[in-house]
Structure formats: C-alpha cells, structure tokens
Design brief:
alpha+beta, Creatine Amidinohydrolase, 6 strands, flat, two-stranded antiparallel sheet, about 150 residues, 4 helices, four-stranded antiparallel β-sheet
C-alpha cells in the first residue's frame, strides 16, 4: 500500500513540477480498503493495528477481492484540488458502489435547490437507504435513526 501512495504522490509532484510552497501534493494520499471508510494513509513505519483488517492494511498487498478508496490532493499557487475515486476489481462491491454513486448523484442534483444542508442530507439518506448491499463477509445497510 505504501508503494501505491508513493507512486501517486511522486506522479503528482512530477505533473505539477513541485516547487516548495508554490505547488505539490495537497495532503498525504488516502488509501482506504474495504470497511475503512476514508482518510487512512499508509506509512512505511506502521507496525500495529486494532483489527485484522488494519493489520492487513499495514502490511498490505491489495487483493482482487478488495475495494479501495483513493483520495489525493494537489496544490498550485495557493489553490487546492481534492480528488477521490473508488476501485474494485471483481463484482463483490458493485452493489455498494452503485448505491454510493446514486446517493452522490442525487446530492449533486438537489444542491441547486434553495434548500438547507439538512434537507439535502435527508434526500441523500432516503436514496441511499433504498439499497441493501451484501458481500460474502458482511451486509451493509446504514441505520440513520440515531441522527434524527
């Protein structure tokens, strides 16, 4: 995993012609696998973790059955761009990714309405809750009752 993060960061540095505070990577690359939702950055010195998933990530080789969320940033002349995408290599995660994409697109569509953020979140929540997503290991269905 560390090699993947370094490859992305080195590529970013080369593309924007890294120049100290003027341009370069915006933040450490996030590579979150499976149920780790976001913002995990692999570090070469990591040696511990609280779960089997964390232990595997820390010493990781990305498996064909994994889903990985990639989040990276670029800054140039004080402006930052954040980009994120999800990859899966076989159909285990397809339904979950479909649900996330549909909910995200719903949020993008309703953002132009003169609505409050809370109202938008209710619309997105309703859309996402239409999906039940199962993998061979776990079933994912978000329970929103605690947020009301």
């Amino acid at each position: 995993m560390t090699e993947i993060a370094e490859m992305i960061e080195d590529g970013t540095r080369a593309l924007v012609e890294e120049s100290g505070m003027d341009s370069g990577i915006g933040f450490p690359t996030g590579l979150s696998v499976n149920e780790v939702a976001a913002h995990y950055t692999p570090n070469a010195g990591d040696t511990k973790g609280g779960t089997d998933t964390w232990l595997r990530i820390l010493t990781a080789v990305l498996r064909e059955s994994d889903v990985i969320k990639v989040d990276f940033g670029v800054h140039v002349n004080g402006r930052i761009v954040d980009s994120a995408f999800t990859l899966n290599f076989e159909p285990t995660w397809d339904r979950l990714l479909e649900a996330v994409k549909d909910a995200t697109n719903t949020g993008v569509r309703v953002r132009t309405l003169p609505s409050l953020v809370f109202a938008m979140s209710l619309i997105i929540r309703k859309r996402a809750s239409m999906y039940v997503c199962a993998t061979s290991e776990k079933q994912f269905r978000r329970s929103w009752s605690h947020t009301r």
